[in-house]
Design a protein that fits this description.
This protein is of the alpha/beta class. The protein is built from 5 helices and 11 strands.
């Protein structure tokens, strides 16, 4: 994607659903914290950010979507919209973990370099990710995102961490060992701007897929909502 071409990011895996558009320093967003949103509302948000940024779909260089894990309905919406735009406009589609977006938000807000993030997976489970910035400042996955039992103690593969995400409201004692040095942020959710930042700036954490392969990453197949 040319450096000046804006990227559109769609993140609907949690109750904080939204879209973000950015190609340079300015980022334009539309979002809601009202819970699950239909695809028609996402398209309205896209129209709104494009209008605010004074550009069109023809100006886009890529579309990124939060593939989950998260709400089954939400990740399906993001994938479907990304597929539609990819097909219609011939755009590269970038698939990004919603947990990576949450980790990026936690690290930015806390100033830490290592994060453990968790979302409520329902049915006694948690979606957990562990991410850290390396010596060059690049964000990387310390280990793959996973689904674990909420009663399991999770031990980070590193030193001081920040803990973030509503999974910590479900399982306050999730982390083994001392309290996180960066604190616990149970109300933090991944936003579309966080997803956009990962998609644009962390190529190792995005997967370029054909529109037909833009699929949710459920981590499990049983639909909970």
């Amino acid at each position: 994607m040319p450096a000046a071409a804006p990227c559109l990011a769609i993140e609907t895996a949690t109750d904080r659903a939204g879209v973000a558009l950015g190609g340079g320093e300015r980022v334009f967003t539309c979002e809601s914290t009202a819970g699950a949103v239909p695809s028609r509302l996402v398209y309205r948000w896209i129209e709104a950010v494009l209008a605010t940024a004074r550009c069109t779909l023809d100006d886009l260089g890529a579309v990124a979507f939060g593939a989950g894990p998260g709400s089954f309905t939400g990740v399906r919406v993001a994938a479907a919209v990304a597929q539609g735009l990819g097909y219609a406009r011939g755009l590269p589609v970038w698939q990004v973990s919603s947990l990576a977006a949450l980790a990026a938000a936690a690290l930015r807000r806390s100033g830490m370099r290592h994060a453990v993030v968790a979302l409520d997976a329902r049915m006694g489970g948690l979606y957990v990710g562990e991410y850290a910035r390396d010596v060059a400042g690049r964000l990387r996955a310390v280990r793959p995102d996973r689904l674990i039992d909420a009663q399991v103690r999770f031990e980070p593969l590193g030193g001081e961490v920040v803990a973030a995400g509503p999974g910590f409201a479900v399982a306050p004692g999730l982390l083994a060992g001392a309290a996180p040095a960066g604190g616990v942020w149970p109300a933090l959710l991944p936003g579309a701007a966080d997803l956009l930042a990962v998609a644009r700036d962390e190529p190792a954490l995005r997967t370029v897929v054909a529109p037909a392969a833009a699929l949710p990453n459920y981590l499990r197949e049983r639909v909970t909502r």
